[in-house]
Amino acid sequence: MSAILKGKKGDQRLFMGNEAIARGALEAGVNVVAGYPGTPSSEIIESLSRVAKDRDIYVEWSVNEKVAAEVAAAGSLAGLRSMCTMKMNGVHVASDFLLHLALTGTRGGMVIVACDDPNAHSSQNEAEMRHFAQMLEIPLLEPGSFQDAKDLIKWAFELSEELRSIVFIRGTTRLSHASGQVVLDELPETERKAAFRHDGFILDQMTGSVISLPIAFKHPQLQEKLQKAAERYEGCPFNSYTGPENPDVLIITSSACTFYSIEAVHMLDLQNRAGILKLTTTWPLPKRLIKKHLQTAGQILVVEEVLPFMEENLKVLAYEIASEIGIKPILGKRDGTLPSHGEMRPDVVAGALAGITGTSVDQRSEEYEKKVNERVFFGAPARDLTFCPGCPHRASLWSIENVLQMDNRQGFVCGDVGCYTMGLSPSNFGTLKTAHSMGSGTGLASGFGKLDRFGMEQPVLSVCGDSTFFHTGIPALVNAVHHGSNMIMVVLDNSGTAMTGFQPHPGIEKNAMGDVAKSIDIAKVCEAIGAKVRVEDPFEVEATQEALFQLLEEEGAKVLVLKQVCALSPEKKWSKKFEMSVDTELCIGEECGCNRLCTRIFRCPGLVWDQESKTARIDSILCTGCGVCASICPANAIRKTPLAANGKEVA
Amino acid sequence: MQVFGPNELLADVLKKDLCIGCGACTEICPYFKSYKGRTSMLFSCTRQEGRCHAHCPKAEVDLDELSSFMFGKAYEGSPLGSYQSVVISKAGPEMIPGNFQSGGTVSALMTHALMERQIDAAVLTDWKGLIPVPELITEPGDVTRFASSKYVTAPTVSMFNKSKQLGYKRVGIVGTPCQLTAIAKIRTNPLDREDFEDTAGLTVGLFCTWTLDARDLLKYLSARIDVEKIKKLDIPPPPAEVLTVTTVDDEIELPLSEIRPMIPRACSVCPDMTAEWADVSVGGLEGSPGWNTLIIRTQKGAELISKAEASGFLVTDKMPKESFEHLSMAAGNKKARAFRQAMEDGCLNNKDDGHAALRVSPTILKEMNIESGEDNVGDT
Fold first, then answer.
1. At the top level of CATH, which class does the domain A240-357 belong to?
2. Which of B26, B36, B42 is most worth mutating to test chain A (most A CB atoms within 10 A of its CB)?
3. Residues B238-253: pLDDT tens digits?
4. Which residues of A have a CB under 8 Å from any CB of B?
């Protein structure tokens, strides 16, 4: 049985934040769940997809976040409880639809869980989603503990059904990925039946046609809902205050910053002087609750990630009530007390708090700092961000880099989001020269490919993963083909949404719940769009390069599908196609003619430079037996022996 | 000769547009590759010394050292280089007929050398859609397929490098002066490798005033004619000032004023018109389309010529005095222009101020009146 189903009411269990959210959705009786994978949000649907059959819910990995929001909205409009998950970038993708959905309103409860990634641990920006709540004029909740992460979901569904509005829940990396104790509640039996009513009066949200017009009616209606949300937030059980009655410093915080604030107060031993208001209802702010706490405090420190979102709204509120409570100093990011970029940390909060209270944090001794730095910076082996052993991307980028360099016209590759983004790093040949949002490499290439009339003679390529192809790659290719842009889109098809954990996508014959699904052939889609298409196996280095050279000769938009399953995929892991070995007699090592091409440039972690023998060798534990290094060795010193499926040498 | 590594080659030659795409640095390592007439460095290499640099005809070419290797004496700076004799020649009655540029001397010599097993393979240059493609052949009957001048930069030396890997011990090569400069450098075993073998069995040089960038020419001609139909390119002697393109169904003339901008910068610092580092060098003969000028330089070359004559593969005759003087003047002019240009470009006899493309004795420069920059050498 899946972890999130185990246990009865009252049991305490250790859950990762995302599991707690998933459990919370089940306890809330969710019916429909849709999302697109993206760190740190992916485990919510991962967890729910595994229990979909048991709990009789519908779970899907949608093609992108906008469609996920639409699929979830359909559940809501049919009277079911639906949830939609995504990382923060996804909110931007979905926002066009959400802007309308906010105005039309929902029927069954609909909760959107979007997870931010402060410090961009697994992202290419640390933009946050909270401002969307403000822009869309919908209520936002930020759980500040693992228990809250679970329990808040049910509360959010109830709020959504009371307001008939979408409710946003914001997670952050630390809350989503850290684990904590959670007390379970019951898993209800849901009896909801789906039906979409459209026969009622057009302005009746529950029975009429669903449209955001007339604005003169729908917009004020939306704002009334927000007012109502603020009212409900006044008594929200997930807001809490800990500390003295009249604190010198009132910390107002939310989400994972709650933990850091508690830690900071303890670090400085300020329990008697500092109080913490854990605010879960961060938009719209509950005015009376805020007023009550501001009144009691000397000064206020707002601790949040990343931008001063709560701080600014608090300041607006404080201005509005200044005549009643006086002017309270509110410190935070705007005055530089705390940084407005990167992740918050207990020591950063403690530093700010120490400055305000005139206390000091126990500094580590200089000697200790020195030792740590030595160990960390000089003691640890240098490790680049690199592709896994046997990664098809290394082989693909190797071929692209070779071809572009040989072609010698300063050709370049536009990338986007995926493991292959690491192709920007010099240790992965530096083949990629741009990286933006999903599918954007192909859109950029479509644009670059039209600049020949202005004298641009450089070959233009894009790389795009298979999941990204379906997500946002297709419109970019359509654009390129339609406008006769001179470019090559290279689809790096590793058969799954690999970077986030092999979630299925429309190209896979299986859906999130494990059922057989119709798979969509990428090459056929591209052909139907009108591109010239070649399909190659990137492990066949020579054929791949030949195909690229040929496509470089052709006019218009071309597609090269490089198809090879990810080395970490469950189906491929532990199965070696070749046993690799190095003939040390033939290996010329550092000599002129090679100079460690395999270990210095190709850099598969499965290849090791042996300092003593001055030759390369294979790390048989790491090597996945893809055989690519044998194709690149200039001395033919790397040998591959075919292995049968059982790992034995082929006779 | 001073030998540096790939980074110096990149900085001094490739990045300064001095690469002529001869292919001398390719097919010996994975870092330098030739594609469509151009050489590129694919990945960084950290070696301090490399064959890539040692082989390059545009990096640290010490003319004294080459001369002493080839002819056992210092470089004299004479217009035609060292030679035993200069004659005119054409293919003899025993030679298979072909689509020769002039007299068919080169084809006849290579055919004969392969037939007589003086060489076990020959490196010749073909083209595919105007892009030069060096090939290695072993059958004498295949030689005529490669007849006719290509006028474009070609990685011919790459195939010589490859022939070594394939195990050929006596390889004949037909090449332009820059390509044969590279071959001569290769033959000196510049890195003093113990396992070195000189596999150049016969070197036949082609006269060259300048060449054209293969890609530029392809682009230029593609816009005007179906390049697949091109049979022959020719630049008739002055005052014609045209490039003649013979296609399957036509012959068209293109003004040299449009062609000259495609001359690689590397040609401007080339002091060698008559392929001085070859066993024999061959060019056209002004006013006699059916004949070649033949410069016999080495003993090996002289022996080959007499054998080829004896077996009816080659016919030779006395070089007319006027033609000899014209040739000398043109070759001398190119030499002086090149030294002057190299000096202007700061790549001649460098000391502490960087690496030289060329090194030549200051005495010779003085004799050629180059130091002062007041030489009276005119343009041909």
1. alpha beta
2. B42
3. 788 999 999 988 899 9
4. 401-402, 405-408, 429, 590, 592-595, 597, 600-601, 632, 634
